[in-house]
Amino acid sequence: MSNLPNCPECNSEYTYEDRSLFICPECAHEWSSESETVSNEDVKVVKDANGNVLQDGDSVTVIKDLKVKGSSSVLKIGTKVKNIRLVEGDHDIDCKIDGFGAMKLKSEFVKKN
């Protein structure tokens, strides 16, 4: 008997190997043998307009006048935003802006301070 790993999705013991992949016949999950040794989740790296990596708690500056949806006001260029939080989705920055309140921004319209 071979020592094949159990499926990481359903923990099935009936996995088999096909070239460089392991396959689970019960849940149809496929994974590579390299992913077994390094089990890093698919972490989305969020970068600002200049290519700097953003993290939770960073401070950023708006680099373009942005129209605020549902309002007649505009978020001006140079507005500083403190303590950002990264979230999933198209607008990947969640923050609070003085004078505007809670808001979501796209990372392509900010630069890291």
Automatic annotation (TrEMBL):
InterPro entries reported for this sequence: YjdM, YjdM_C, YjdM_N
Domain called Protein YjdM C-terminal: residue spans: 46-113
Domain Protein YjdM N-terminal: 4-32
Gene3D superfamilies: 2.20.25.10, SH3 Domains
PANTHER family to which the protein is assigned, alphabetical: PROTEIN YJDM (PTHR30305:SF3), PROTEIN YJDM-RELATED (PTHR30305)
Record-stated family: Belongs to the YjdM family.
This protein's name: Protein YjdM
Organism field: Paenibacillus kribbensis
